[in-house]
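During the second half of the funding period, the structural biology subgroup turned its attention to how the target accommodates small molecules. The most pressing case was S-adenosylmethionine, which had performed well in the primary screen but for which no bound structure existed. We therefore specified the complex as follows and requested a full 3D prediction, including the ligand pose.
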Amino acid sequence: MHDSERSERLARVYSARNNQELAEGYDEWSQEYEGDMISLGYATPAVAAGFMGRYVPPDGTILDAGVGTGILGDTLKVLGYEDLVGIDLSEGMLEKAREKGAYRELHRMVLGERLSFDDDRFAATISVGVFTTGHAPPESFDELVRVVRSGGWAIFSVRDDVYRDEGFQEKQESLEKEGKWRLAQMSDAFQPFPTGETSHMNLVFAYQIS
Ligand SMILES: C[S@@+](CC[C@H](N)C(=O)[O-])C[C@H]1O[C@@H](n2cnc3c(N)ncnc32)[C@H](O)[C@@H]1O
């Protein structure tokens, strides 16, 4: 694999100006995505799966929001999370996730818009690599809170600069002030791509829904 081609694919999704361009970028990347991420030592799914294991009992329905090719699905299944539903804005990524067979349902839905799920449908939601620049906005949390039942969990990563500078910290704190969720744990900042070039750090959060 050529590093320059991988860099171009990454650059394309980070420079998307709207959801259509973003979806097209991921559609095109879908065949190479997992190989690229694994070659960079993609660490965020392992940290998020650790948070799941710490907080979320394995018997409920879990929403993987921004499921991508379903990297998390195989890991969550091994940990005993059998009832997995995934959503993503890229049909190409969803198609790759379908091939894995780890998810009971996969739907095209857009975070930041209303989700086609009833209130309180899920025991927990998990999102990895989705709350980063030019991707899903902080308002996505309103719908994630709506579709997770009281006492359930929201586990997700946020890029650290995006957390501070693009409204995530403000939104997460305001949902806590409004009594919608309670922060249980915020990870230390860590390098999401340990074998790649230096990149921004990631944070992983666990919130319990009120
Ligand atoms: C870096 S990938 C992460 C995929 C997977 N969670 C993982 O860790 O491998 C980001 C994913 O988020 C999806 N995405 C970005 N913005 C989104 C949005 N607003 N709504 C739904 N999916 C979105 C992309 O299509 C892509 O599949």
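Two results from this model are relevant to the next phase. The CA atoms of residues 65 and 127 lie 5 Å apart. The chain has nine helices and seven strands.
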